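Duplicate of #3305? Posting structure anyway:
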């Protein structure tokens, strides 16, 4: 299944931990938005790992499933791929 995962995490350390969890399942397209292609078992695993990291009274994570047809029609304006500043890269 394809999905968009968006989050708003109040505390920087939790934010970093949640981002690292979601990176294990998909790729970042904006600072707090990931695109994920995942099966039901891995989705439940990801969701459980996120629940272990967040403070429900302060943080929020939303999962937006996309059908195959919808996923194929995603459009972007401007820079559609987020370059993660935490990842190493070389400028030539």
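Output from current build:
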């Amino acid at each position: 299944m394809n999905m968009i995962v968006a989050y708003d995490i109040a505390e920087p350390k939790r934010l970093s931990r949640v981002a690292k969890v979601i990176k294990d399942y998909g790729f970042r397209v904006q600072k707090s938005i990931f695109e994920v292609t995942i099966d039901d078992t891995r989705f439940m695993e990801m969701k459980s790992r996120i629940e272990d990291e967040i403070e429900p009274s302060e943080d929020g994570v939303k999962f937006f499933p996309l059908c195959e047809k919808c996923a194929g029609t995603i459009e972007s304006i401007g820079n559609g791929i987020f370059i993660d500043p935490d990842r190493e890269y070389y400028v030539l």
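Confirmed duplicate; merging threads. The chain has a mean pLDDT of 86. The chain has one domain: 2-71.
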